[in-house]
Backbone:
């Protein structure tokens, strides 16, 4: 994070005991041969996203949600996943610390969205609400999209003409 961004966030610094929710999602990543492999990724969940999961009962790639404090998941600027809650083999998602800070601030501004009691979990089987876990559509992480001329959409000949 740049020094300018750090300064602008300085007055809005995250406190260690502030509420935040992390989720473990089933994602997919391409291997060297181009085949999709299933991976488990932990990532912070902003307040509005959690509220949508509760209110709309929409399907999600998350199969575990855990309400915790910022200090429990970030120590010394490094992501730390609670081993007693988060299964082995789960890795922290990209920009985890910055995203955890941002998600934590969303719960500060919307305390009514703290739907999961502190240190409690939600899964498809149990919790304050049950997750509607689904791997479809597949979340592919670190996907590289290469744009080519074939991606261009053919325009109708009159699209860019001024017709009288």
Residues:
């Amino acid at each position: 994070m740049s020094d300018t961004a750090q300064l602008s966030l300085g007055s809005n610094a995250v406190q260690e005991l502030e509420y935040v929710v992390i989720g473990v999602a089933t994602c997919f990543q391409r291997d060297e041969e181009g085949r999709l492999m299933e991976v488990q990724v932990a990532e912070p969940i902003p307040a509005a996203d959690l509220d949508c999961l509760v209110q709309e009962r929409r399907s999600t790639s998350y199969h575990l949600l855990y309400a915790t404090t910022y200090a429990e998941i970030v120590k010394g600027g490094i992501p730390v996943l609670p081993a007693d809650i988060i299964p082995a083999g789960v890795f922290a998602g990209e920009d985890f610390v910055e995203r955890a800070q941002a998600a934590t601030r969303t719960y500060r501004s919307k305390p009514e969205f703290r739907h999961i009691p502190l240190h409690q979990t939600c899964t498809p089987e149990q919790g304050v609400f049950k997750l509607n876990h689904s791997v479809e559509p597949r979340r592919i992480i670190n996907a590289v999209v290469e744009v080519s001329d074939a991606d261009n959409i053919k325009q109708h000949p009159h699209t860019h003409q001024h017709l009288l």
